[in-house]
Amino acid sequence: MITKSDSRWIKRHTEQQMKEYNMSNKLVDVLDPSRKARNQVISKLKKLIIVIGPTNEEDWDFVNTLTDSIVMDGGVPTELELKQCNNLWRKYNVK
Q: Among the four 46, 63, 70, 78, which has the fewest Cβ within 10 Å?
């Protein structure tokens, strides 16, 4: 029989485990070709390309080149490139 304290312990343990799981999605893991998350990253970059469109050629070129590098060459973006993408995501208010 599961007591109330056992139930709380299981819930906390599960939450901690989920946090650890999410934290293990390091960039190298995310961009591994065999992982589904890689496709999600690429699709978000493509969505950003579409939103930027022809309005700002410099931003569009940056994201497009980064996406091509990941898809074609299997490149891994740097932390600086990812921060720039996050800033562009906020700048263009992508939903």
A: 78
By CB atoms closer than 10 A (0-12, 13-18, 19+), residue 10 is exposed
CB atoms within 10 A of CB 32: 14
3-state secondary structure of 33: coil
Residues 67-84 pLDDT 10s: 988 888 777 788 888 889
Contact, 41 vs 29, CB < 8 A? no
Secondary structure tally for the chain: helices H, strands E: 5, 0
- The residue type at 86: N
For residue 45, give both structure tokens. Answer: 């970059």
pLDDT in tens, 15-41: 665 555 544 445 555 555 556 667 778
